[in-house]
Amino acid sequence: MAPSRPGLPQASLDMLVLQAVAAGPMHGFGIMQRLDQLSADVVRFPQASLYPTLHRLENNGLLTGDWKSAHKGRDAKFYRVTATGRERLRSEAGWALLSKAVGQLATLEHEMRTASAIQRALLPNTHRAGAFFDAAAASKSCLAIGGDFFDYIDLASGSLGFVVGDVAGKGPPAALLGALMQGSLVAQAHASTGPAATVAAVNAAVVRRGIQGRFVTLFYGVLRPDGSLTYCNAGHNPPILLRADGNVCRLDVGGMVLGIFNDTPCMEGSQTLGADDHLVLFSDGVSEAMNEAEEDLGDERLLACLPAATGNAEQRLQHVLATVQQFTGNAAQHDDITAMVVSYRPDQL
Length: 349
What we know:
This protein is 40% helix and 23% strand. By secondary structure, the protein is of the alpha+beta class. The chain folds into two domains: 10-112, Arc Repressor Mutant, subunit A (Orthogonal Bundle); 123-348, Phosphatase 2c, domain 1, CATH 3.60.40. Strands 3-4-14-13-9-10 form a six-stranded antiparallel beta sheet. Strands 5, 6, 7, 8, 11 and 12 form a six-stranded mixed beta sheet that branches. Strands 1-2 form a two-stranded antiparallel ribbon. Helix 5 (92-122) runs parallel beside helix 6 (171-191) and helix 6 crosses helix 7 (195-208). It is elongated.
């Protein structure tokens, strides 16, 4: 889901772009990475905002651009600061705008760090083990705070409830809705008859609050000691069920995203897990993680990495995260990344 970050006045953003390009000729993707470094990841330009800014600065004579061969022979426009642009950076007015931008970024970063500490406190411990399961999860926001969330729920029946969700957008609004979703889901999970009923009740609670322009994808599952799994997938990336014999299936039964319509139908899927079967849940920040060539990791690469994973749930989770890191290399992170592994271990009973 596309990032939505705190904004700065256009004049300050222009100065940040000039400062980024002053390091040397670079194309748009390189400029975005440089801006992330300058802003300490508090503000990020989506391409839709960056390229109009570059075009305006070029028209005003502050930047100039030349088409050259870039990665894998593909042409890209490389920008450099003109003499007029450098004079603007050196001028008193230019420094005042740049200083203002840096001051605003520092304030935003402090507020974000405080909010980030609160959000981390709301998430459960990353590892959870029980009599018949082993589970591990991790979440890395592309901003100081993000819209992804996960949770474990110990149900009265002795079953394990588990959820991974992704709120549209990023930053404080998405984080607040994510916290609301967590609290609502935990409450409804103890009161409802199953995953579909739980998800339907959570959706109704979100719709009642009338939060415009926000929706949530979510996967909620319940694993029982006998290996029976019931779940509801509300528009989320279908988790991967990796069988001990190497067979794979995707868990896609459920309904549409939450938070839009009140009476959204929610269906319930089911599977039976055997010893050493593993569930891999993930947000779109995993499958859509982008490398420096602007290629997505994709489901095929994710599926291909799983057979090589061994060990407990934590080790398998780290294998998935390492695959994402190896693929993206030095490319900037453009979305929240969340993954969870739930392993069925009846031999622990």
